[in-house]
Design goal:
Length: about 500
């Protein structure tokens, strides 16, 4: 289409002077019309939803049939629902593995209420642009068999349980993955019926099954298998939303051969299938994480307890630089050390809007009066200035986001504990003049998967009481003394 504004080329000078003004006006009018025409052709770009500039792969929609999710299938065709068995079918032979997996968060990743409430908000706020994205990790089979749309994503858990039953991350999801094309955003390749027959990819080269072919897969024995879902990158702004895999990769665990599987799928002596051989180290499928609150809400009390036990093993808390005694009327500083001794990634890791570890520090005198506290829960969140370990996401104006993660364009701060790392936090208080000795100082290390405030917003008040899990505690009693005594000591 010709640009009418070009006709105003200055090469046509000299222009008869009397008509100069009207000529200029005509030019302006024509350029304005031209710019209007241009706007009609390309709708104004909404910079909130910029197409990804990150990689050519992301721009190639044919290479990404489930854009903006990175899942692939053979020939990138939609998969057939009938190609996948329900986990219960696998469970008929893989009894113990099924029993374990059934208690895990991953087995509930489509039905669990927190995900679904946030999914509904995300789907509405982005007019469906993240529908594929979320589901590709939370119900991979649902997405790749074409069962996902905005209506399904915005429906209630009760409704979809009847009308759109779909698995979360189940046996068929993980054991039909035969390759990956990247390390984030669900870059797995899901290939059911490779070779025209049901084929399961797994860690053994000597597994024989009457029900399916088995193929050895080195990928399943490595952390990069988990990376496809445990690294979440914002598909439009490219912010690193979750980075559990990268955190592990840069830790001492990765070069000491301790994988995600070493800690989250430790071996047990027994059978992988009822008619299979006895083995010394069958990969367990508990997938114990940290989410005791949601697990107990879902009725998985034993799994919730495993999460609490794992959290207790993850960290150590201790006092540093403690005085021998306290002086009434004087200020004292207490330093508390927290070390990540058990998590192969940052502590906490994962879901950034929620996961938080913090110190609840309390000082009580001999008469039982609380003389200081920092780290209490107020209005459904840890109180301001709490010494915590958390990542904070922000939008383009630098405003912190607790809910609208789809608006994230930057990481504002991240003070989580590195794997095998530690941090020291300080508390300063004044001992009241009338305090009664001895003074007891207590530092509790706590975890919750999300603040109560977030859950109340997502589910409504009093629907789910968020449990605060105690990861560790340290306590010390100090006598009161005089400054003279203090100087002597
Ligand atoms: C009729 C019984 C039966 C059923 C049903 C069954 N399997 Fe198996 N499967 C076996 C046996 C037996 C083995 C070999 C176990 C061994 O060697 O320890 C096996 C092995 C496996 C392996 C290990 C493969 C490897 O190479 O490491 C995977 C993965 C697997 N099955 C997944 C599944 C999935 C997923 C389902 C459901 C779709 C399923 N199985 C259904 C009997 C069954
Ligand atoms: C050295 C053992 C170890 C390794 C290796 C390890 N983890 Fe963990 N993981 C833990 C412990 C302990 C916890 C509980 C404390 C916490 O939440 O970090 C945990 C928690 C988690 C959680 C739940 C976090 C939350 O708060 O919701 C996820 C998800 C997870 N791990 C995934 C992974 C993945 C994926 C890998 C590999 C990239 C991995 N882990 C490697 C020990 C490990
Ligand atoms: C999140 C992904 C994931 C899910 C879900 C999952 N598995 Fe696995 N499975 C794995 C990985 C990874 C391994 C190999 C672990 C290793 O080698 O350390 C494995 C190993 C196995 C093995 C071989 C165990 C052995 O040591 O001989 C069998 C059999 C198996 N899985 C069956 C199942 C069944 C049945 C289900 C559903 C009830 C299931 N898996 C769900 C990822 C998964
Ligand atoms: C297909 C995607 C996918 C793969 C592959 C995958 N995960 Fe997950 N995983 C998820 C999703 C989604 C959740 C969150 C479920 C929820 O809370 O709604 C999750 C949750 C978890 C949790 C529970 C976290 C908690 O807060 O308690 C652990 C532990 C975990 N995964 C470990 C692993 C390990 C280890 C591997 C590799 C062997 C792996 N996952 C592979 C998608 C995946
Ligand atoms: C690349 C894979 C991936 C994508 C895409 C993804 N998630 Fe997740 N999601 C995970 C994993 C893995 C976890 C578990 C992390 C942890 O336990 O801390 C998780 C955890 C969550 C949780 C916490 C659930 C709970 O009960 O603690 C919510 C809520 C959630 N995701 C919502 C979403 C929404 C909404 C979207 C789309 C905007 C989305 N996720 C996209 C992998 C993904």
């Amino acid at each position: 289409m010709g640009n009418p504004a070009k006709k105003c080329s200055t090469s046509r000078l000299p222009v008869p002077s009397g008509r100069l003004l009207s000529w200029l006006l005509t030019c302006l009018l024509l350029s304005w019309l031209a710019s209007l025409a241009a706007t009609a052709e390309t709708p104004p770009s909404n910079d909130k939803w910029l197409e990804p500039a990150r990689s050519r792969l992301l721009e190639n929609k044919e290479g990404l049939p489930f854009f903006p999710h990175r899942a692939n299938t053979p020939n990138n065709a939609l998969l057939n629902v009938a190609d996948f068995d329900d986990a219960q079918v696998c469970g008929a032979c893989h009894t113990e593995i099924y029993r374990q997996w059934r208690t895990s968060m991953m087995s509930q990743s489509w039905e669990e209420p927190i995900y679904r409430a946030l999914l509904r908000h995300a789907s509405e706020a982005t007019e469906g642009r993240v529908d594929n994205f979320c589901t590709g990790c939370h119900t991979p089979i649902g997405l790749t068999t074409g069962q996902i749309n905005s209506t399904v994503n915005r429906a209630s858990v009760e409704f979809t349980a009847v009308h759109n039953p779909m698995p979360g991350v189940d046996c068929e999801t993980c054991h039909n993955i035969n390759a990956r094309t990247g390390l984030d955003n669900g870059a797995y390749v899901l290939s059911p019926r490779a070779n025209g027959r049901p084929t399961k990819f797994g860690p053994r080269s000597d597994a024989v099954s009457p029900y399916h072919d088995t193929v050895y897969s080195g990928l399943h024995t490595r952390s990069d298998f988990c990376a496809t879902c445990h690294n979440v990158t914002h598909p439009f702004s490219t912010v690193a939303v979750e980075r559990t895999y990268d955190e592990w990769l840069e830790s001492p665990y990765s070069f000491n051969g301790q994988t995600c599987q070493s800690c989250h799928m430790p071996g047990f002596a027994g059978k992988a299938a009822v008619m299979g051989p006895d083995r010394a180290d069958v990969a367990s499928h508990w997938f114990t994480g940290a989410n005791a609150a949601v697990l107990s809400y879902l009725g998985q009390e034993e799994a919730a307890q495993r999460a609490r036990d794992q959290l207790a093993r993850a960290a150590e808390i201790s006092f540093e630089s403690m005085p021998d005694h306290l002086v009434p009327g004087q200020e004292v500083s207490v330093r508390v050390k927290v070390a990540n001794v058990g998590a192969g990634h940052k502590l906490p890791t994962g879901f950034p809007e929620g996961r938080e570890v913090w110190i609840d520090f309390r000082v009580v005198d001999g008469a039982g009066h609380e003389i200081y506290r920092l780290g209490a829960i107020k209005d459904g969140a840890t109180e301001p200035d709490t010494r915590n370990f958390k990542v904070h996401l922000g939008d383009k104006d630098g405003k912190e986001l607790d809910i609208e993660v789809w608006n994230a364009t930057q990481i504002l701060s991240d003070n989580r504990l590195l794997p095998k790392g530690y941090d020291v936090r300080e508390f300063t208080l004044e001992v009241p003049k009338d305090a009664v000795g001895p003074i007891t100082l207590t530092a509790e290390l706590n975890y919750w998967p999300f603040p109560q405030r977030l859950v109340d917003y997502l589910l409504g008040k009093d629907k789910l009481k968020v449990e605060v899990t105690r990861m560790g505690q340290v306590e010390r009693s100090l006598p009161l003394g005089t400054p003279v005594q203090a100087a002597k000591l």
